[in-house]
Structure formats: structure tokens, C-alpha cells
Amino acid sequence: MTPSPQPPPSPSTRAGREPSGAGSGAGALCRIRVGSAPDSWGVWFADDPRQVDWRRFLDEVARAGYEWIELGPYGYLPTDPERLAEETGRRGLKVSAGTVFTGLHHGAAVWERTWAHVADNAALAQAMGARHLVVIPAFWRDDRTGAVLEDRELTAGQWRDLTRLTERLGREVQDRFGLRIVVHPHADTHIDGEETVARFLDATDPELVALCLDTGHYAYCGGDSVQLIETYGERIGYLHLKQVDPEILAGVVAEGTPFGPAVARGVMCEPPSGVPALEPVLAAAQALDVDLFAIVEQDMYPCPPDRPYPIAERTRRFLRSCGA
């Protein structure tokens, strides 16, 4: 049975370190490449009047000190590779990944529609020099309205379809675009907390399917990110860094609040004020001794246009103090 989100423990005292660049100085996280994403600027959709203009996002993410970005929802940033390369290049930005949403538990009937969506995203990511495609499972309830779209539990047949078709997706994306898929456990989807993540990983081929560990979503659903890294280290292919506010989360869990409204209430908070503590997560990731992207994603939809930049700048400064 899929576990309901559980409040994580209260934040512990965090011991900061002196800032040091990646690869230099004691304790530097030399295998971790830090970036940010449109999500940290309140961008959830390709086009929404409540979101900041894509030019402002690119300007501010570069000014805040990040070198790497994700593409975000397809169509938010320019989809012409030459134009996007010019816009990112002159700001000193590089692309780490694209992102797609899939509903592969629905079986073969959705494959062609899914692939058309994936191919557009993967082609742009490939053209921009990215090596990853973040794959997010479909929501079982609407992330804006909270309307229940389907049962939150998958049948055995749906689990087979999900794992089999995700492996197919991994193979096709790898063969055609040279990208590795990293599946993103996410609140209000069928892959969320410890039980469903373990079931999914145990049922899929490590050569075809890796994991994008989002520290905030995993904590939102009761998981321990450090424990996951230590248990399934060979499956960790990518990181999203975020934290949850434990007090707001406790209310969200008690009230059964859908994810979208929970975000609007501020459940995802600015580091280092929430949980999980990011220092031990980054240390556990560094101990894997592989190169990993760690992309900051602070869900803030919707948010005032002047709110994201100061948070992004402070977050980058905090991560430097952790050695990243």
C-alpha cells in the first residue's frame, strides 16, 4: 500500500563550513555540479501570466551564481536550439536536463502520445548538450485543483506496465538521443515514498533506469534521502535539492491537502530552514564517487516575480558554504 506523506523530524542544528569552490579546499564536493531550474522561479507551465518571463529567469539565475539549468516545462524557454544556445551562452549557462511527465502505468495505449512528447524534449536537451532527461510520473490528483483523477494505488498489472514501459523509454531515449532517463519520485504520484520507490527500483533494469532523488519530495512523503542514497547508491543518477517546512507539512498531512495547494501554503521552504538537512545528503552523494548534478528546485507556484531571485542567491551562498 502506498504510504501517505509523513512529517519528517524537526530540523537539527546545522554546522556550516567556510565557502569553497567545487574541487578545491577541504571538504569540497568535487563530484557535485550545482544548478537551478525554472521551478525555483515559480515556473510550472509553458505559458502562464503569473510566471516570470523566460528572459528574466535566465538573467537572474546567472546573476545568482548558477552555471547549470534545466529546461523546465517544454515551451517555456525557446525551443529553437540555436536561439536557446545563444541566449544561454551569452549568460554563461549550460543545460543539465530536460523534463517530461509520463503516465506509463496506463499501458501500451499511451505509448505513441508519450513518445511524441518525450522526443521533443529529448531532442532539445540533446541539442543543448544535456545528458539527462528527468521523468516524472503522472499525478493521481490534479496538482492545481486537487481533483482526484484516478486511484492512488496501482494494480499489479499497472505496476508491470509502468516498469516495463519505463525500461522501454530508457532504452529508446538512450539509443536515439544519447540521454539517460532519471525517474523523479514526486508527491501525489504513484512513485513517492520509501515503499513505492524501492518497489520501482527493484523491478527495473539499472542499465536503463536511474533515479532523480528530489530531497524535498522524498521528505514530503516520509522518506530519508541519506538512507536511500546509502541503500540504492548505484541507482542515483541525479539530484534535486529542496527542503520542506515540517510544521506546514504536518498540517498538510493532517488535512490531506493536495500538493499544489500545499506549495501555495509554503510547504517547500528556503534552505537551510527546513528538512532534510542538505549537508549530509550532499556528503552521502559525494561518497558515491560519481559525477552528479544537484539542481535546486524550490517549488513556489505561484509567487510574486520579485521573490525568487533573493532566495536563489542566498541558496547558492548556502550551498557554497557546504562545499558545493
Automatic annotation (TrEMBL):
Pfam families noted in UniProt: AP_endonuc_2
GO molecular function: isomerase activity
Coiled coil: none
Gene3D superfamilies: Divalent-metal-dependent TIM barrel enzymes
Region of interest: Disordered: 1-27
Keyword annotations from UniProtKB, A to Z: Isomerase
Source species, domain of life: Bacteria
Family matches, as SUPFAM superfamilies: Xylose isomerase-like
Domain (Xylose isomerase-like TIM barrel) ranges: 58-321
Pro residues compositional bias, start-end: 1-11
Statement: the UniProt record of this protein carries the keyword Protein biosynthesis: no
InterPro entries in the record: IolE/XylAMocC-like, Xyl_isomerase-like_sf, Xyl_isomerase-like_TIM-brl
PANTHER family: HYDROXYPYRUVATE ISOMERASE, INOSOSE DEHYDRATASE
Protein name as it appears in the record: Sugar phosphate isomerase/epimerase
Organism expressing this protein natively: Streptomyces lichenis
